[in-house]
Design brief:
heterodimer; A: six-stranded antiparallel β-sheet; 7 helices; 15 strands; about 30% strand; globular; B: about 150 residues; alpha+beta
Chain lengths: ~280, ~150
């Protein structure tokens, strides 16, 4: 857990919503600022516990720029009671925040190497802070390849930013959708299939993957087929988190707790558990 | 300028093929170029040529009356357009349209099938590559059908 967070990790920091942006019918991005005090620093890949007062608390990855210390940014999809309550918050509404928690993306290890980012659906949100850092410190990395899979064109997140990133001459970005409509002129098909088309040096590549677990399994296989070693593939795992500090066991994943040993985990260390359906 | 054989052996589908077999296959190939919007294949027509994409993108589509064609897959450099030439009745089951300028090798399928019939080493090598391609496409299609992004937070 970040030392800058509140001294008691179970006590949420009172915050308010500064601004909301609708990303899709069921998905909202919220900018959140503390009512008092500083915004704790965080690393790309970490998460906060967001507390909708009177409803409950959920873990949500940071989706904003780690260099921007004016507040937190979270992209939330309505999938349950708490997330529905959070995306219905309006500007100035109150909520509680605990965090930041968890392990970050391997930005240091990626320096001097090709970086392949593979995001599926809302999995783009936890990867966005890593992309901001890659672009901000672009000279420290070799090729930067960003592959994004979405359900359909209407659910594409951060469209304006994707267009900006794609416009960079030193970034390769591809978006694909599982189901196209007549307005879509881009890629159609699953995101792991894009990996074989991309030019990168598998022996000198760090891959960062986030999305539904099925998509991550296919993606890890495609990266492995392309020659990327499992110890250079990182995935962001999701389980039901409660305490967020490795005490309660709700997010146990084999010998690990996702909240403190994850959410970002190196594939070779979790490969066995990753293949077990019951875990 | 690279020979057809060299271009063929650089394509991921034929990479690693013995040079002698590559030379035999190259005898069935031609370099082609298709502009954006041009069709490479039409549903229901004879599967007489398939394509090894060198550069560019191609959309696989199915037409439906009264609505725009539905694109179910796009393919890029290093991939193959058309696999219905492998089995009778050798007819395409979809349309393939260039969505950008496409440079490709077009392979005469009757020529290639005849060479496979007379040289089973070539035929077996080709079938191994085609079956791997079919398995990859099948797995990808299953993942596509699973609709994994529907309402599930990562």
């Amino acid at each position: 857990m970040n030392a800058a967070a509140t001294s008691d990790p179970f006590v949420p920091q009172p915050c308010r919503v500064r601004r909301t942006t609708r990303e899709a019918a069921d998905t909202m991005t919220l900018e959140i600022v503390p009512v008092a005090g500083q915004v704790p620093s965080f690393e790309p890949g970490q998460f906060n516990m967001l507390y909708a007062f009177g409803v409950g608390e959920i873990a949500v990855s940071m989706s904003g720029d780690a260099e921007d210390r004016s507040g937190f940014v979270h992209t939330v999809r309505a999938v349950g009671a708490v997330s529905r309550a959070i995306i219905s918050l309006e500007a100035n509404a109150a909520l509680g925040v605990r965090g930041p928690f968890g392990t970050p993306w391997p930005m240091g290890e990626a320096q001097g190497r090709d970086v392949v980012i593979v995001a599926g659906g809302l999995g783009l949100a936890p990867l966005r802070p890593a992309i901001y850092r890659l672009l901000r410190r672009r000279d420290r990395f070799r090729r930067v390849i960003i592959l994004i899979g979405m359900r359909n064109p209407a659910e594409i997140l951060y469209e304006r930013e994707l267009a900006e990133w794609r416009g960079s001459l030193d970034v390769e970005l591809e978006v694909t959708v599982d189901r196209a409509d007549a307005t879509w002129h881009g890629n159609v098909g699953v995101v792991p299939a894009l990996i074989a088309r991309m030019p990168f040096d598998p022996a000198e590549t760090v891959a960062m993957v986030c999305g539904p677990e099925v998509m991550m399994r296919f993606t890890v296989n495609a990266l492995r087929d392309a020659g990327v070693a499992l110890d250079r593939i990182y995935v962001s795992m999701e389980r039901n988190m409660k305490c967020a500090i490795g005490l309660c066991g709700h997010c146990q994943f084999g010998p690990d707790f996702i909240c403190k040993d994850g959410p970002v985990m190196r594939m070779d260390r979790i490969a066995r558990a990753f293949a077990v359906k019951e875990i | 300028m690279a020979s057809l054989e060299a271009i063929l052996l650089q394509h991921p589908f034929f990479r690693g093929l013995e040079a002698q077999l590559g030379s035999v296959v190259a005898g069935c190939c031609a370099n082609v170029r298709r502009g954006r919007g041009e069709y490479l294949l039409h549903e229901g027509t004879p599967a007489d040529r398939f394509y090894l994409i060198r550069e560019g993108t191609v959309a696989l589509e199915i037409a439906a009356a009264g609505r725009a064609p539905a694109t179910f897959l796009t393919l890029g450099s290093g991939e193959i357009v058309g696999i219905s030439w492998l089995t009778p009745p050798y007819r395409w089951t979809f349309d393939a349209r260039a969505t950008s300028l496409v440079h490709a090798l077009a392979v005469d399928t009757a020529c290639l099938r005849a060479k496979c019939e007379s040289d089973h080493d070539l035929g077996y090598e080709l079938m191994k590559r085609c079956s791997a391609l079919l398995v990859r496409r099948l797995h990808a299609t299953r993942l596509q059908l699973l609709d994994v992004y529907a309402g599930a937070a990562p």
